Amino acid sequence: MHNRALPYLLLLPATVFLVAFFLYPFVMVAYQAFTTDEGILTTQYFTKMTSHWKFKPALNYTLLLAFTVVPIQIALALYMATLVSNMKRGRDLILYVWTIPLGISDLAAGLIWLAIFDQTGFLNSILVGMGLQEQPSLFLGYQNKGTIFLAVVLAEVWRATAIVLVILVAGIGLIPKEYYEAAQVFGAGGWQRFTKVTLPLLKPSLQTALILRVILAFEVFAVVVALGGTNLPVLMGEVYQRQFVLQDNHVAAAFALLILFISIAFTLLIMWVLRTPREARL
Amino acid sequence: MSTASTSVIGQSRVAKWAVTASVVFLCLWVLVPIYLLVANTFSSPAEVNGFPKRFWPSFDTESIEFFLNFHGVGSALWNSLLVASLTMILSISVGAPAGYALSRFEFRGKGTFRVLVLMTRAFPLPLLALPMAVMFIKVGLDDTVLGLAIVHTTLALPFAVLITYSLFSGIPVELEEAAWTLGCSRFQAFIKVIFPLVLPGIAASAIFAFVVSWNEVFAAAVLTIEHRTLPAFLLQSLDDAPLHLKFAGGAVLVIPALVFIFMVRKYLFAMWGIANR
Amino acid sequence: MKPFVRQASAALVAVSLGMIGNTAVAEDLLFWSKQGKPVEEAQAMRDQVLSGFGSAVDFQPNDGGPWLTRLQAELKAGSGKIGVLGALHGDYTSMPDDLVDLSDIDLGDVQMNAKFMELGKLGTSEQKYIPWMQATYVMAANKKALEHLPEGADIDALTYDQLIEWSKTMAEKTGSPKFGFPAGPKGLKHRFFQGYMYPSYTNSMVSKFRSAEAETAWNKFKELWSYTNPGSTGYSAMQEQLLTEEVWVVFDHTARLANAFNERPDDFIAFPAPAGPTGRGFMPVVVGVAIPKTAPDMDAAKKLVAYMANPATQIETLKALSFFPVVDAELPSDMPASVQLSGSAISKMAGSADANPGLLPVGLGKLGGQFNQVYVDTFERVVLGGEDVRKVLDEQAGALRAVMEEAGAPCWAPDPASEGPCPVE
């Protein structure tokens, strides 16, 4: 087997699979965004998308949510990963507990957090029960967009930090112990070892975790709808609305392409910022 | 932030205490919402709707029994397991070689391939479902476990490729090269040296694949009729269900996934020790 | 990892065997429905309604997205599994060409509502769907709310002004707003504006969209909204908030109130929708059964359609889904509380001196969703966004006019009949 052909052979199954089951349907959908039912090339669907009054808030909330949720998740997962890698006993159990949200779908997560923040929910039950307030307060009312936003952020952090954690834990596991020992010999403190050894060597894992989370964050939908109703419009919600309620497939496709475009742009940005020069690799 | 240190030598009592407190807090942060779901599942409808809410269940099994006796819930559970297992196998066997190639070789089209993989995840699936369903009906994949597993694999593949890619990237090439100089073929070196190291990571991405498939509702609802999966069967109708059934249905879906993660955690985390030389 | 791999390959074998096995089995008739999604309703449909059909029916209720996607896919592929469709009148308007003509179905001596039969033609000469069941929207209240009812107000002949006053008193006396409105993402708010508010204030649904009367109506609604529970933007089926007592007085679809009535029949009452200056506007909801052109077994499908229109089936359906019959049927006395409560509210509403019934939108084709969106957008901008009523009405009137002209749909009641597309004045 020649080395030059080897990478292509290894990529072949995945490529064939993606071309058949993703690229083909994708092209069919994307085509709709640029052509009318009669097959005439047009940009009217993009104009229709951007000129709708809900377009800007949907775009803004989607970006704002991603930029709030993802950094918190990365920081929290890093912290959790370092905690767990220092642990002597009970590591298995703690890791299991922390990865539990992995198994919970966004629909179920929305359900759980709605039960907490609802006007007759658990949070109000505690506050009223402890006498901190007389009447249950309305956290998710349409005037309290800030609270709704906060609730969505909490629910998303709860739900989707586990995936980052698992990627980082696996990555940290690959960092040779000798590096830390050497760093210690040179008198590096805990924080220094973290910033000088862990972080740089964790770059590939961090890159992966970031890209996956950012892409998924741009598609956030179920949790936002469960907690915010129509108060926090997001791009994915507009896709659903256009495709299934308004039956306007062209504009739905335009929205979907916008999500794709933003995701790819940020992916390339992250790849570039966190690139690992070949000579700097282990 | 001394808690972030990688060794406990010289840590003060306070720091130790802070670590324990953080761990306990984070465990509670994860577990309390789950507990609330389970507690609600085992409460009577009147208690679920009442205010203030109770924080301990009355062990009323009416809601959960409704689901356990629900027509076809057993076969839906079985279908979900089949689809998820198949998704797991497909996405790893197709994704891991690609991840290895991306980490070890420089070649033309590498960037294009990475973007293609990511696009899969960045484009909303509900729109793809229509052309996919048309294709599946035409080629006879419609309403089969394999057909749905293929759709779920396209969702899980980016995870599989990216995670295995970052794992392989984290393993020094020198390890492999050393094996080659000792007379191993590329394949032998991979099996003997690299594979044991990345196994936990592979298990992790296999678990993702499983979970992605387990929780996917839309494609499952469109593409399966007789082979309905559990989420397609239950979850999409929960929106309209009364509150106590929403909770019970949520629990019926969540619990098998938790059991699955619990069962495979051995593979995920026991081997983690091997990698952590 | 080894045992795991073994289990997985065992699963694979089972899958392939399963696939082979299935091709041999005769398939049940697939009833692809948008109604009856709540799990207990689906169960009741299977156990009580369809069990009497004779041969096996696979009742599968679905959300709008999967429902439409699967149907469109089968139509595009030219073959499919769906035998019978169950959906709202508004769902069918976009697909008359994809539905089989049902004129040749023999309904026997069943007395079907003639207006609904006409709607089922979808503006064509063929019978595109057969009416299956109907419902409407009513008000419901917790009995605790009754003591705050304005003096002299008759609960069965309420006006919008009295409703506002009532809501205001409740908000002031209890410290929190007790009126609830289904304005959530899945709430049926648009029907309130189209079939209740507009007819009650303008005696129109379309042509007087931006009239001065419409401006008054929206301002009245804004006033009501200030005494409405702000959580309303998350509500979809008001039975939930009635049961949690988050709110006391609500407006919603009868099927979306049924759980509350059935669970605590002594705590709640149902009553007619309020009246405005131009009468007591209200609107029916019609659900029909249809057969897509790709149905695998046409005869069996037609038999099921006829079975659904059977008076006995209709009564069982009423018990299962809380939707009322569309045929003449003698209701037995042992009906659930929801049927008795909503039923009497509906007959009071329809029989009231100022009743102003509207019809469902017709002739909108694919634009039905966009038609609804005009009303929802107006609500979100005027009421939630606090924008100027006049300005929003003028802008949204443009959108409405575009929809009507593109669809070429003439006016329907209560708007007076029009030549050509219904004009937005």
Class of secondary structure makeup of chain B: mainly alpha
Number of helices of chain B: 13
CATH superfamily of the largest domain in chain B: MetI-like
The overall pLDDT average of chain B reads 83
- For this structure, what is the CATH class of the largest domain in chain B? Mainly Alpha
Topology:
The complex is a heterotrimer of chains A (282), B (277) and C (425).
Chain A: H1 6-34, H2 44-51, H3 55-85, H4 91-99, H5 106-117, H6 122-129, H7 145-173, H8 177-185, H9 190-201, H10 203-218, H11 222-228, H12 235-245, H13 249-273
Chain B: H1 13-41, H2 45-49, H3 62-68, H4 73-104, H5 110-122, H6 125-139, H7 145-169, H8 173-181, H9 186-215, H10 218-223, H11 230-238, H12 243-270, H13 272-275
Helix pairs in contact in B: 1-12, 3-12, 4-7, 4-9, 5-7, 7-9, 8-9, 9-12, 11-12
Chain C: H1 2-24, E1 29-33, H2 39-49, E2 57-61, H3 64-77, E3 82-88, H4 89-92, H5 114-119, E4 130-142, H6 160-174, E5 179-180, H7 189-202, H8 212-226, H9 238-244, E6 249-253, H10 258-263, E7 268-271, E8 280-282, E9 284-290, H11 298-308, H12 311-321, H13 337-351, E10 355-357, H14 368-384, H15 389-407
Parallel strand pairs in C: 1-2, 1-3, 5-6, 8-10
Antiparallel strand pairs in C: 3-9, 4-6, 4-7, 4-9
Helix pairs in contact in C: 2-12, 6-8, 7-8, 7-14, 14-15
Essential attributes:
heterotrimer, A: 282 residues, mainly alpha, MetI-like fold, 13 helices, 73% helix, flat, C: 425 residues, alpha/beta, D-Maltodextrin-Binding Protein, domain 2, eight-stranded mixed beta sheet, disordered N terminus
